[in-house]
Task: inverse folding
């Protein structure tokens, strides 16, 4: 099975900060990575699909990059509504593995 | 608008089964796969399985093989997930979500169904 390893598991940041979250796959998965945002008590919401495509309605401060095994989610200027947990997910294999999540907290 | 509406919370005893429904609306039901994902309290997301409402084919995570069954009723645009032999570790919020293909993102999610397993 493909393993998806996210780092860091949590981070503290201030409004306006640039934030990067990394996801590493245990084998090459081309660009089959999606990023989700989840707020407490809510269902996840897709932010980035196919590694770098911005989901409709998602603010442009969110971006994704990478291919093969290494992927990055970037928030260019953190806003109050961005404090949440973020998950990467591979859609390359038939196990659709999620990363363990990165909690973005207010500093 | 696209909606996935799940059935309500359940409390079950160890060893029992639970069946959660996911009713789709706002799109052509058979054109999208339905995934099931669960989240234990304070934990991350765990993929359980996928059903193709068009042909009724399923793929289950190895961890749940033999305990999970996913079915669909195309006339009701509804997918069901049944988990048997419940244990306390199955206490979680269960989500359904749709994807256009098996390599696509999960673009719409249900609201989640809390299943509590307790004696």
Result:
């Amino acid at each position: 099975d493909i393993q998806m390893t996210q780092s860091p598991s949590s981070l503290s940041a201030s409004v306006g900060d640039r934030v990067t979250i990394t996801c590493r796959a245990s084998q090459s998965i081309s660009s089959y990575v999606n990023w989700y945002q989840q707020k407490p008590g809510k269902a996840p919401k897709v932010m980035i699909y196919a590694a770098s495509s911005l989901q409709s309605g998602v603010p442009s401060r969110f971006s994704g990059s990478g291919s093969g095994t290494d992927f990055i989610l970037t928030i260019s200027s953190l806003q109050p509504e961005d404090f949440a947990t973020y998950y990467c997910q591979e859609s390359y294999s038939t196990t659709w593995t999620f990363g363990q999540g990165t909690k973005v907290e207010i500093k | 608008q696209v909606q996935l509406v799940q059935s309500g919370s359940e409390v079950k005893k160890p060893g029992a089964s639970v069946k959660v429904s996911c009713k789709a609306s706002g799109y052509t039901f058979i054109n999208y796969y339905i995934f099931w994902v669960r989240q234990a309290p304070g934990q991350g997301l765990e993929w359980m399985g996928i059903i193709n409402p068009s042909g009724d084919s399923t793929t289950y995570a190895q961890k749940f093989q033999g305990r999970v069954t996913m079915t669909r009723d195309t006339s009701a645009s509804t997918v069901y997930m049944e988990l048997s032999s419940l244990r306390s570790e199955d206490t979680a919020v269960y989500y359904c979500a749709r994807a256009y293909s098996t390599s696509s993102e999960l673009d719409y999610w249900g609201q989640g169904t809390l299943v509590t397993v307790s004696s």
